[in-house]
Fold this protein.
Amino acid sequence: MDNDMQAAASNCGARTPGRPLPRRLQAVLLAALLATSLGAAAQPAEYTNSIGMRFVNIPAGSFTMGSPDSDREADADEKPAHRVTISRPFYLGKFEVTQAQWQAVMGSSPYDAAAGARSNPYFDLPGMAERVRKPDNPVTVSWNEAQQFLQRLNEKEGEKAGQRRYRLPTEAEWEYAARAGTTTRYSFGNDRDQLGRYAWFGEDFASGAPHPVGGKLPNPWGLHDVHGNVWEWVQDNYGRYDAAAATDPVRGSDGPASGAGKVVRGGSWHATAGGWRSAHRKEYAADYRGISIGFRVLMETER
């Protein structure tokens, strides 16, 4: 304890009841309290884990989730728009998980024949397998496979069973981070003509494929490819929104319930995808393994 703090402690113990503290002492105590509070709350802006996955700190806050009735592009399942509070900060992957990161954790490629068949025929198109499998491309896997990766990643990073440090973001966390404080159709505004600066999109199946992560501009919070490249799995089951305000909502997070699929966000690289707007959502079965759905990892902050 320094001299000022010693003096503060001494004066606090000796002051006459009912008399206010001296102004200088009040300032010292206030500064000490503020420093302690900031020290406990401070988190690094970025974090890199043992296999080189980079994470961006996302602050707690509130936002309007979904699309307003005035948005003519919005689908019915994006409504009603509703207020959501994210009560805890978290880290979110700066990029989508890549093929190289998958292999570093899992020890094999999800595109090997032993991993099983794809859920659509596009992987077998001429040249597609080679285009998809590039090391810096986002990996494309099922929701179930993403859960296996997360379990292995937590084991690799030393987390105890039942204390998951890494997980998929909830749908609310994903949209909150993708919007990055914006209320427009995209994180960069409403102008669709600007989409090409931020997203890989609109390609055909004859020559197109996912692209190396980070090749386009990031959103205001430093996240790349939240629009386009590959769809991203989130933790929730698919379901319609409620108009009521909510805090940290998650819908049936442990697995598909009563026929409900899982939610993907962000749109992808091919022309038929659509859905590059921040609020757009789509349903797929948890075991769906295509060539345009990957994921981004959330890392919880230390409690």
